[in-house]
């Protein structure tokens, strides 16, 4: 998520040192959607994903005095989200977590032409469907790096895998998406 990223260090300093609610609000608006999407990839439930993302943000606020000690708060937040998501999965292991309402399409495309809007919407839908067809870890790695703008190292830390494994998952994801989209648009 490289669009309009706030100065994270400044926000964290204001939150930790001055209990700045306005800085926390900026952090919340910037980080919550990424945490939600990440949790949704694991949980396939809007409600649980919102709960996890909210719990992470609450945890950051409650522990704000210690945030300056954290090397990378963004990675820290994703690790909390991962752990809470895994806890939720084990808690709800026997329940069906997927509903038709959980399908989320969220990409902002700039276009003024209705035809272009239609084409972009169709392309976005195909890309989202192709992304959903990726194996679990491939999908997570792709979303964390390509949609949330995390580095390979940050992604490896969040998923508790090596950087080389992250690279391998991303290469696999891009190859599969390329193949799927070429077939979809008759480019093969």
UniProtKB/TrEMBL annotation:
Residues 126-177 form the RNA polymerase sigma factor 70 region 4 type domain. This is RNA polymerase sigma-70 factor, ECF subfamily. Belongs to the sigma-70 factor family. ECF subfamily. Residues 33-94 form the RNA polymerase sigma-70 region domain. InterPro entries: RNA_pol_sigma-70-like, RNA_pol_sigma-70_dom, RNA_pol_sigma70_r2, RNA_pol_sigma70_r4_t2, RNA_pol_sigma_r2, RNA_pol_sigma_r3/r4-like, WH-like_DNA-bd_sf. Signal peptide: none annotated. SUPFAM superfamilies: Sigma2 domain of RNA polymerase sigma factors, Sigma3 and sigma4 domains of RNA polymerase sigma factors. It comes from the Bacteria. Pfam families: Sigma70_r2 (PF04542), Sigma70_r4_2 (PF08281). GO terms for molecular function: DNA binding; sigma factor activity. GO terms for biological process: DNA-templated transcription initiation. Keywords: Sigma factor, Transcription, Transcription regulation. CDD domains: Sigma70_r4.
